[in-house]
Design goal:
About 30% of the residues lie in helices and about 25% in strands. By secondary structure, the chain is α/β, with parallel strands linked by helices. A six-stranded mixed beta sheet has the order 2-1-3-4-5-6. Strand 4 and strand 5 form a beta hairpin.
Length: about 200
Amino acid sequence: MNSFDPQPEIILASSSQTRKDLMNRLGLRYHCISPEIDESARGEIHADDLAKRLAFEKAKIISDQFPEAIVIGSDQVAWREGAPDVFIGKPLTVENAIKQLQSNSEKIVYFSTALSVQQKSSDFEHTLVEHYKVKFRRLNSSEIERYVERDQPLHCAGSFKCESLGISLFEQMIGQDQTTLMGMPMIQLCKILRQLNIRLP
């Protein structure tokens, strides 16, 4: 940031292309730094708690390094109805993606998406969790295999990309902000950035 620019540096604490695409919607100058953290659970018994801790830790690690910057961290944990303590992670392999989608068939899957915005120099910290849920239609084996082959959702919790062909898997989508499902609740982010005097629009 140069001396003629009054806007603080903005850092997205993520390497996720989907979150970069969401940030790009805002037309702000920012850059990405990926925080290296262990994303495994530490005894959390609800998806909200795990997502919130991970989003906070991601932002804090980068904020400690760049105290003047506005740092944005986000994390998402998926879980099936009635089981918020059984976390659905990224499948990472085709076999796991197929198994996840078989388990999701005709089920409601919830997404706890946490957002943490921090600026260490001003002692600003706001961390929250937003929710979204989708009802999967009945999926047969050939549909699941075709979908996984085409969309390759191996790094997506729940094994789908809602912004792509994943929309074909659903019977219903329920929530206030679809970007929550995509991995970062943008309505809430915009609200927080305005509190920090970032002009939007």
